[in-house]
Amino acid sequence: MKLNNLFILIVLTSISLISCKKDDDTAVEPIPVRDRGEQAIADDEALIAYLQTHFYNEEDFQNPSEGFDYKIKFDSIAGDNSDKTPLIDSELLSTKMVTRNEVEHKIYILKIREGVGTHPTFADSTFQNYRGELLNEFSFDNTANPTWFDHPGTFTQSNPGIAVVALTEALVEFGGASGFSINNDNSVTFNNDFGVGAVFLPSGLAYFNSPTATIPAYSPLIFSFQLYSVNQADHDQDGIPSYLEDLDNDRIVANDDSDEDTIPNYLDVDDDNDGTLTKDEITVNEDGSITFPDRNGNGIPNYLDEDEFENVNEL
Ligand SMILES: [Ca+2]
Ligand SMILES: [Ca+2]
Ligand SMILES: [Ca+2]
Ligand SMILES: [Ca+2]
């Protein structure tokens, strides 16, 4: 019986190997991932073409009607709108270079109103309404109510978040409102001085070769937004704001892990794994600034120095 089974197993295995080989011969070649540098250039050309042929609802912002929602609308310059100013000629449009995956990408930021509040950093949380669209004017996302973004959360597998680096890099150029009031029905109205803007971005700072259900691969994107509020994040509550836990200054906090325990510093309550919590190895001053003591003077602050008592007697 056993031999029979073995024989059958061998035969089946051989058949499956043969059929695998057959499949391999006829398999479609996987599409090679495009070169990031070349795609950045192609996307920039597409973005410029869009900016040359589209305008935004400038008049609505210049003379806001009562109840105006301060949402940006784009349309193509044609027909009745032939005399509109192309976005590329708007004084409110600026560019910013953002490096990712060793490629410099250009994003275009339309700053209609900066917003009076504190600007977020790349590692903070922001509260906004937003609308995302493709260059063909298809809108793939549009919030009905303001929503929070945890910007570093966009880089973790378990929390894909917005996954759009360029949106973060645009929002850091804006501030939220000076305050808000709570209405009788408990809804919130933000003071009318919040940030309003848009960003036009290449696929290399968004989904690149990974399509979503509604965004094809290699799609440049447009996000317009109303930024209401900003929260400085200290994800691990160790007293060090998350943006200061980006030790290599590449604007990604997920890749800084001093003690190599796979928990990045911005989520690690004991960054050097010496058994003393980071919050007990730093000094938060009355004005909110932070001092990083370095007991043995070796240039490594105590909270990152697993052996800060080493050589301390020789000093
Ligand atoms: Ca922290
Ligand atoms: Ca980093
Ligand atoms: Ca760690
Ligand atoms: Ca420690």
In short:
The chain has helices at 2-26, 36-53, 58-62, 165-171; strands at residues 54-56, 74-76, 93-100, 103-113, 125-134, 139-142, 147-150, 180-182, 188-190, 195-201, 221-231, 283-284, 290-291. By secondary structure, it is α+β, with helices and mostly antiparallel strands. The protein folds into two domains: 36-231, Chitinase A, domain 3; 235-315, no CATH class.
Report on this structure.
The longest helix has 25 residues, at 2-26. The strands form four sheets. Strands 3, 4, 5, 6, 7, 10 and 11 form a seven-stranded antiparallel sheet that branches. The N and C termini lie far apart (79 Å). This protein has helices at residues 2-26, 36-53, 58-62, 165-171; strands spanning 54-56, 74-76, 93-100, 103-113, 125-134, 139-142, 147-150, 180-182, 188-190, 195-201, 221-231, 283-284, 290-291. It is an alpha+beta fold. A hairpin with a 5-residue loop joins β12 and β13 (290-291). It has two domains: 36-231, Chitinase A, domain 3, CATH 3.10.50.40; 235-315, no CATH class. The structure holds calcium ion (CA) (4 copies). One calcium ion binds at residues 257-259, 261, 263, 265, 268, 271. Residues 257-259, 261, 263, 265, 268, 271 line the site of one calcium ion.
